[in-house]
Design goal:
The chain contains 1 helix and 17 strands. By secondary structure, the chain is mostly beta strands.
Length: about 270
C-alpha cells in the first residue's frame, strides 16, 4: 500500500527580510503604560515654558491633604542630533523639589549604535541612587548593560545584562519567552483600539478603557483592577487658552478609601 498522504510538502523558506531594531527597553511598553490613568489627589498646578527650541522648564505645585505639599522645578535640555520623534542627543533632564532633593538624567550618543545614560538621585544633600546604562543596537536586537549603585572599590558592580530581539513571525512579545534579567515585565501588554476605545490588560487583572473620541479635544480613562479599585480621569483642553484641565477620582472598596483631585496644566 502506498503512502496515502503523498510526499511531504517542502518547508517554506525562512523570511530573509530584516525586521529592524526592536528599540530600547524603556520604549518597549511605554505606549501601553500611557493608557493607564494617572491617579490624582489634591490640587496640582503645572506650568510649562519653552525658552528655546532646546531648553524647557516646568514648574509644578502640588497641594495635598494626605501628604506634605511640595514644589518641583524641572529643566530639560535637548541637543541638535535628532534620530527619531522621541530621540535627541544629548539630553539633560533635572528635577528638584523644595527640600533640595534632585533627580537628574543624562543621555548621550557615543556612536551610531551605542547609547549611554546616567541617572542620579539625591535626598537633600545625600546621594541615594546612581545608575549607568550602556546600550548597543544591532540590526535586529538590542543589548543593554546596567550598573546600579556600583561599588567598584568594594567589588560589587551591581550590574545586569538584559537583551532583546524581534520574535519570530507569529509570536508576540512575551508569548512563551522567558523574562529578561532586569527587563521588568515580560507579559504581552497589548492595547487594541476600536471605535475610539483602547482596551487592555496586564498580569494583575487590571482593565482600563479610554474613549478618546467621544468628546472633542478631551480624553476620558477608567480603571478597574483585582484590588477592588475603581477610578476615572477626565482631561479637557480649554481653547483658545493653552490650558488643560484634568479631574480624577479613585475608590478602593476593599480598604474603604477614596481620594480625588484635579490639576491645571499651562503650556
Amino acid at each position: 500500500m502506498g503512502n496515502a498522504w503523498g510526499p511531504a510538502a517542502p518547508r517554506a523558506p525562512r523570511r530573509g527580510e530584516n525586521l529592524g531594531n526592536p528599540g530600547s527597553f524603556d520604549e518597549l511598553h511605554r505606549q501601553c503604560k500611557e493608557v493607564f490613568p494617572q491617579q490624582m489627589e489634591g490640587v496640582k498646578l503645572i506650568v510649562n515654558k519653552a525658552l528655546s527650541s532646546h531648553f524647557q522648564v516646568t514648574h509644578t505645585v502640588h497641594m495635598s491633604t494626605l501628604g506634605p505639599s511640595n514644589y518641583h522645578f524641572n529643566a530639560t535640555f535637548v541637543g541638535d542630533r535628532q534620530l527619531g520623534p522621541t530621540e535627541a542627543f544629548p539630553t539633560l533632564v533635572g528635577d528638584m523639589d523644595n527640600s533640595g532633593s534632585l533627580n537628574a538624567q543624562i543621555l548621550h550618543l557615543l556612536a551610531e549604535r551605542i547609547r549611554t545614560k546616567a541617572v542620579f538621585q539625591t535626598h537633600q544633600a545625600k546621594f541615594v541612587t546612581w545608575q549607568f546604562d550602556g546600550e548597543y543596537r544591532g540590526d535586529d536586537c538590542t543589548a543593554t548593560l546596567t550598573l546600579g549603585n556600583p561599588d567598584l572599590l568594594g567589588g560589587d558592580p551591581g550590574g545586569t545584562f538584559p537583551s532583546e530581539r524581534h520574535p519570530p513571525p507569529g509570536v508576540g512579545w512575551g508569548d512563551g519567552l522567558p523574562p529578561a534579567a532586569g527587563g521588568g515585565r515580560s507579559h504581552p501588554d497589548t492595547g487594541r483600539q476600536i471605535h475610539g476605545f483602547q482596551l487592555g490588560g496586564d498580569a494583575q487583572c487590571r482593565l482600563w478603557w479610554c474613549p478618546c473620541e467621544l468628546l472633542p479635544q478631551s480624553q476620558r480613562a477608567g480603571l478597574l483592577d483585582s484590588n477592588w479599585s475603581v477610578g476615572a480621569v477626565l482631561e479637557k483642553k480649554l481653547p483658545p487658552l493653552p490650558v488643560t484641565l484634568a479631574l480624577g477620582a479613585f475608590l478602593n472598596h476593599w480598604k474603604n478609601r477614596f481620594h480625588c483631585g484635579f490639576s491645571v496644566i499651562v503650556g
